[in-house]
């Protein structure tokens, strides 16, 4: 199998380059696409990508909302790569060295099934700095989508927890992405592209795999649009609102 990893970024060149370096430390077939939706094309980021093996720099013709940017990056990777699976990797996420091999092996043994995984999180707002580390077993579980959807509908979202198949913690088979585009017109063009993808996936597949291990950590919460939304200010949330504008998928 081969993975195409898409890193959407906007005015965060340093974070994007760190994310690329973390993915280069994996023992699996991996092609990296940096999708630069910055206010202006970042020459430093473009040059960095040009000098790295298996890394491609992408730039849309105009600034996009977050959902449109994610969707564009994923579809560009599908068109430009022969990868069997696609994953979306936050720019403010670092993958643990050599951590992807076991998850990739699980995906290769069940090539038609999505595989989700756990993520640690470093948060700084509100202070103090904290590291959240969910417990894990290293096992692979098969999960029924109907059960996950029922728990979400009942407001019991903490129970599926890290197994939730949001776009940024999944290896997604190419066939799944093609099916979503055929049915909905796009992969994740919405105000919340992570949850948009998850809802569409749960509606179109009966099961998925959950690799119960933490293979990455998110950080830089001071730049998070989602954290800014919950606080009602700060982070990149004001920029998110500006780029959303009149965008209606």
Structural account:
This protein has nine helices and ten strands. Helix 1 links the parallel strand 1 and strand 2 (30-36). It has helices spanning 13-23, 43-50, 66-80, 100-109, 145-153, 174-184, 193-204, 225-231, 237-244; strands at residues 3-9, 30-36, 55-58, 85-88, 93-95, 115-123, 130-132, 140-144, 170-173, 207-218. The mean pLDDT is 91. Strands 1, 2, 3, 4, 5, 6, 7, 8, 9 and 10 form a ten-stranded mixed beta sheet that branches. It is of the alpha/beta class and 249 residues long. 37% of the residues lie in helices and 23% in strands. It is globular.
List the helices and strands and how they pair.
Blueprint (H helix, E strand, L loop, with lengths): L2 E7 L3 H11 L6 E7 L6 H8 L4 E4 L7 H15 L4 E4 L4 E3 L4 H10 L5 E9 L6 E3 L7 E5 H9 L16 E4 H11 L8 H12 L2 E12 L6 H7 L5 H8 L5
Helix pairs in contact: 1-2, 5-7, 8-9
Strand portion: 15-25%
Task: Report the radius of gyration as a whole number of Å.
Answer: 17 Å
- Profile the largest sheet: 10 strands, mixed
How many DSSP helices? Answer: 9
Q: Got a strand count?
A: 10
Helix content: 25-40%
**End-to-end separation:** 32 Å
Mean pLDDT: 91
Runs in which pLDDT lies below 50 for 5 or more consecutive residues are none
Which structural class should the secondary elements be placed in?
Answer: alpha/beta
Order of helices and strands: EHEHEHEEHEEEHEHHEHH
Taken from the alpha-carbon principal axes, the silhouette is: globular
